[in-house]
Amino acid sequence: MKKKLLFLGPPGAGKGTQANLFCNKYGLSHLSTGDLLRDEVSSGSVLGLKAAEIMNKGELVSDELVLSIVEGRLLNTNDGWLLDGFPRNVNQANSLKILLEKINQPLERVVLIKIADDYLIKRLLGRGRQDDNEQVIANRLQIYREKTSPLIDLYNKQGILEEIEGNADIDVVFSSIEKALGG
Ligand code: B4P
To answer: 49 alpha carbon to ligand 1 midpoint, in Å?
Structure first.
């Protein structure tokens, strides 16, 4: 089973849901930039307040902030990790590459969870987080298309991309991921 992983996909595809299940079963460190940013927001720090404003509009917080959070966490893991929601643009992907070279832990597989917009919107409206309203969801999807989706081609060219159908029951999606990763 591969142990240096990245889950990619549009907002609401189920990256967080699947990453939780996967890390619990295989003992990997789950690095979710969304969760880490929400922790920062709950702490009420100045950075958190700044991040909340951006997240509530469905935009991406600054690369510097996200990178500093990820770097600190990655340096403290040793038995495998799963990046969830990071990188989200080409600049973050380049920074990640440099960081992973520095710690000599190359990325082994990227799992793309694919799903049509209609299903995503329904799921996110059902979840009802602060950034889950129609206008903000539309913005998040637009940003995904513009900034994040170019990463699909990037990782595909490196030969490490696995595509998974995300419009299925949670356990079915999970089995497809396990199969794709050699479990
Ligand atoms: P994230 O926290 O990454 O959240 P997400 O993309 O909306 O959700 P995810 O795909 O993880 O879906 P989930 O499993 O929860 O990002 C939030 C914000 O943080 C961003 O908009 C941005 O502002 C900021 N941010 C995060 N990372 C950043 C970065 N690197 N750079 C800059 N900014 C960053 O599932 C969604 C719902 O679907 C849940 O209710 C779940 O229960 C349900 N669900 C899951 N799988 C299902 C299935 N198979 N069937 C039915 N329902 C399912």
So the answer is: 20
